[in-house]
Automatic annotation (TrEMBL):
It comes from Cohnella suwonensis. This is 3D domain-containing protein. Pfam families: 3D, LysM. SMART domains: LysM (SM00257). InterPro entries: 3D_dom (IPR010611), 3D_YorM (IPR059180), LysM (IPR018392), LysM_dom_sf (IPR036779), Resuscitation_pf_RpfB (IPR051933), RlpA-like_sf (IPR036908). Residues 33-77 form the LysM domain. Keywords: Signal. It comes from the Bacteria. Residues 1-30 form the signal peptide.
Amino acid sequence: MTHSWKKLGTRASALVLGAALALPSLTAHAATAPYTAKEGDTFWKLSKQLNVPLQKLMNVNPNIDPLNIYAGLKLVIPNNGITAASKASPNAVTAQSVTTTAGQSLGFSKVLDIKATAYSDSAEENGWGPVDYFGKPLKLGTIAVDPNVIPLGTRVYVTGYDFSGLPDGGLIATATDKGSAIKGNRIDIFVPGTRQFVSGFGYQSVKVYILK
């Protein structure tokens, strides 16, 4: 009994007032954020998407069977896996969604860095008239794409441009048009207005979120 108390006294004497104690069982989960799994998610896929070490991701989800991750399953993600842009305005980004300036959360599958131009409904730019590839009238939210990069019919969210003819912050659009000059990582954004006004858009680098 006396021997046990001597051990305790020795350990207690090692603690200095104000010293910090490391508590592994708490610190392992301290810096995490909730995440709801989506169809096709795996720990390996999430680790690559979020740039989080696979073992670290598994360590903060000790009760999750790696072979049974299904849509709707609640996980936690280390905070360093949530992009710093999640704190940015106006386009906050989380692991799988982007928030518009209007506060709408949009789920996306991937993000592309794209060179963008703009076009009008003038006859000089539209040999078949002011309609898209499907024959529907051009409108704000129409974009022309290379179908090999962005399939026709894909909904996207475009951000990063600077032009008064488009909504501030970002534009929800649908790929319903294409053109012979639109090849590779290029999009052409329809903008209402005269050809002279629209030409002021020039060439701009934008981000295109492929929406789910």
